[in-house]
Amino acid sequence: MRQQGIAIEKIRDALKASVFAGEVLEGEYITDIYASDLMSDVLAFGKAGSLLLTGLNTIQAAISAYVAEFKGIIILRNKMPDTEILTFAKEKHLFVLSTDADMYEACVKIANIKGEVPVIENITETTKKPGIITTHTFFIDGQDFASAGIVSTQVKSILKSIGYDSLLIRRVAISTYEAEMNVVMHAKRADVFLSASDKEIGVIINDEGKGIENIELAMKEGYSTATEEQRAMGFGAGMGLPNIKKNSDVFKIESKINKGTFIEIIFYVK
To answer: Which domains are delineated in the chain?
Structure first.
């Protein structure tokens, strides 16, 4: 199905942006732009095939773009991406650009670009893989923001190698990433268990930490106990748990104060 799109090279020219990763732009299109410094909002509302406009010059911005199936990121206010971001972006085939424009100016300039109609196929969840069964175990270290998101990218890579549908993988990756960031922000450690079959994909996150005092309140969009430091890194929008529930077919959560939180999320393979 054809969708309205914009050539990435036209966005580069409009913003007078420098290209740091994904140098070959010709023939590459994006369907949407999502502008935000809140990564949970990116995961909750961003559309696959988008470009992320952000003032965050962090590896988590790149990981969020990858998990959400974005084409790449444009870093605002002339911030230069570091080696860690570029290494990740090149490995995951993400575009990374930098512009001296601020968010408002960048959005206005992109909005004034005349749209085109490239061939872009809709992502549909149609693939069922008979006979698949695999399990994996991962570990998350609480407060280790430098490694935050690594487990989610590993989960996504495993599911892609098996051949699950892109939309299904995106839902699993987003949910796992939100759960992983909750562990990093609020717990000491966590074990993560991934199981995948021809019927369903399951992810269990069992953490040790302070627990959730009021689960009902924590499930409300916008509610957050994140620190100012965590918010400055793009987290704490209060979309984590609601976003997991929205993307999963089955969502279970249990928590005990000063002991930890248990989350199980299941995705049906159609």
So the answer is: 6-111 (3.40.1390.20), 133-268 (3.30.565.10)
What tokens does 126 get?
């149609």
pTM for the whole thing?
Answer: 0.81
CB atoms within 10 A of CB 54: 25
Total residues found in the chain within this entry: 270
**What angle do helix axes 103-111 and 8-15 make, rounded to 10 degrees?**
130
Q: List Cα–Cα distances, 261 to 57, 204, 224, 225, in angstroms.
A: 31, 11, 16, 15
Query: What pLDDT score was predicted for residue 116?
Result: 63
Read out DSSP for the chain? ----BEEHHHHHHHHTPEEEE----TT-EESEEEE-S-HHHHHHH--TTEEEEES--SHHHHHHHHHTT-SEEEE-TTPPP-HHHHHHHHHHT-EEEE-S--HHHHHHHHHTSPPB----PPP------TT-EEEEEEEEETT-GGGTTHHHHHHHHHHHHHT--HHHHHHHHHHHHHHHHHHHHHEEEEEEEEEEESSEEEEEEEEEES--S-HHHHTSTT-----HHHHHTT--SS-HHHHHHHH-SEEEEEEETTTEEEEEEEEE--
Q: What is the pLDDT of residues 9-28, one digit of tens each?
A: 899 999 999 999 987 677 78
